[in-house]
Amino acid sequence: MSAVVSFLTRRRGGKGWHWTDVVTWVWLVGGLIVMFGPAIWLIASSFKTPAQLAEFPPTILPYVGQQATVEGYDKPLTLYTVKMPDGTSRILAEVRRVGIVSQMVDPDAPGEIVKINIADRTPVREVGLATENYVVPLEQNNFLLYLRNSVFVTFMATIITLLTNSMAAFALSKYRFPGRDAVMLLIVGTLMVPLSVVLVPLYSVVSAVGLYDSLWGIILPTVATPTGVFLLRQYMLTIPDELLDAARMDNASEWQIYWRIVLPLAAPALAVLAIFSVVWRWNDFLWPLVVLSRKELYTLQVGLNTYAGELNVQWHYILAMTVVTMIPVVLVFVFLQRFITSGIAGSGLK
Amino acid sequence: MGQIRLTDIDRAYGKLKILHGISLAIEDGEFVVLVGPSGCGKSTLLRLIAGLDQPTGGTIEIDGKDVTKVSAAQRGLAMVFQSYALYPHMTVRQNLAFGLENQRMAKEEIASRIAEAARMLEIEAYLDRRPGQLSGGQKQRVAIGRAVVRNPTAFLLDEPLSNLDAELRISTRAELAALHERLGTTMIYVTHDQIEAMTLADRIVVMRAGRIEQVGRPLDLYNSPANLFVAGFIGAPRMNLMDVKVTAAEPTSVTVEGPGFVATCPVDGSQLAAGDKATLGVRPHDIAVAADGGVEAKVTLIEALGPETVVHASLPDATKLVAVLAGQDVVASGGSLRLALDRGRMHLFDKDGARVPDAQEAR
User: Fold this and answer.
1) What are the strands of the beta sheet with B347-349, ordered from one edge?
2) How far is A274 from chain B (nearest CA, A)?
3) What is the ipTM of this complex?
4) Of A39, A144, A231, B306, whose CB neighbour count within 10 A is largest?
């Protein structure tokens, strides 16, 4: 702990504040707010009720109104802090509201009704979580099904991506054949073609082969990634050819060389690609939206979209489910950060 | 059996020809060393024999069977690579077993072969370690072990000692020789180090620029190098080569004149004529201090090695000369001394660099 403190308070030149210390602090704290602010805002807001989300000015933390069960009333009543005409303030429970007048009772003396202008009362609130934002979509709105679909798509797509891309990378890095560089260039060149350009033809193809409205229709078109081939190829180039020669002398077939020598040795690059692939497929929105039409096949991202209706956006559900959707990706980043940075550094891509 | 016969092997990469018509017959159980400077094609030749590369011309036969088009795996050879090429993700045991598993050998047989090889090479203690946890010398043994367990027709070794430190290199060299003695398997060994070649080989193949310069027993190469290249390559320190002029050429002797000396060599001068340019070669160990006569030389550098002293000297025309003289304190640096060149063997090469044959015994 003291190490953390001394690290955080470390200053240039030991004593006194150098101007670079100030700039550093401002820069870093500012960066922290810019980076984490939205995420914290998202998580905090995901626990707010719809009413609180619409509130202005907004609060950072989620609050829930205090309620009390008052004798003589069946439902719990909402508590308010009321500024009395004599200047004192009391905590009263609202019975009903008529226009701008609120009829209130003292929870300790429920017999007497006090009429208060609504401008004079503020709800008694404390920090609390509106967990129904999470419970309702997960239990009633098929979100667990969407989660399952997303996991299936991400898992299968990643496995197939790793397999096909590593095979392509193996051939492109370890075999010499005419046109090898041209093929490589072609593959990398497809990086310049964005999805939106090929969306329509891709849709025709997927539709023609009967994969429309199926999860495989989302998985298969995405598995051949130029980034993956490039990343793996660059890594495999660093595996010495002598190892392959040694394996050939050891009676290994080309498949065995790929499967038992090259793949295990390319594990670091495969890990990087796996992380990328998981993040890509998990976050895919446009392509699944185009391919899927049955609701029970929706992935999380498409499922989230159903809360944004034409007339009404259910922000509380969107926010809560966005948090759920983010969790796996965040976990991937937190635990596999090291691989990701090395992958980006190794390939110059992200 | 491990008989290997190469006939007119060519290898070209596009227009660049690496090997030019190499023909070589290697007998069963022979230890053949391919030696030459870097880039001479010796490693390429070894890869062709191994089957890792295909010749553009010529045939390779193993035990009388043409294997030119046969894949590396089917040739029954084992190779030890310069970088050892151990599979880094496998333990030593798995490294040794890999080739045998690929042959679908029974598990017990694999285990017993590994045990035997491990005992022979003394690598039992680290069978379960990964190559990354081994020292250079240990890796080297494992690499050899991986070849040994295969029980190959022949071993191909590509500069196996070049990554070891000097001391380890000498001891491993001796072990390799012992291993060959024990297994009696044909070994083809590639190196650029002529000392390894001299100490290990039954026969040395000296290569230069894709051609075989000379094939012979180590001492034959040392005593009668076929040309200037072999003369300069075999033997350390290098043979002194001096430009000389033939003054008299007889079938039994040739007299030459060099910078500050005249020497008579017992060689067959019938192909030479007086006035021809030639090169006289004298090994540093064949030079002695002359009491009188000899050639006057100025000493430029002394390297005292203990039992012998290496003297770098220059002749009157600034030709450099290296002599290895027995004993210590033979001469002071900066001084001059008289060296007798003709006390030992002299080698005469004609103007094309080919050896002038020794004189026939007096008939």
Assistant:
1) B261-265, B254-258, B240-249, B277-282, B347-349
2) 20
3) 0.82
4) A231
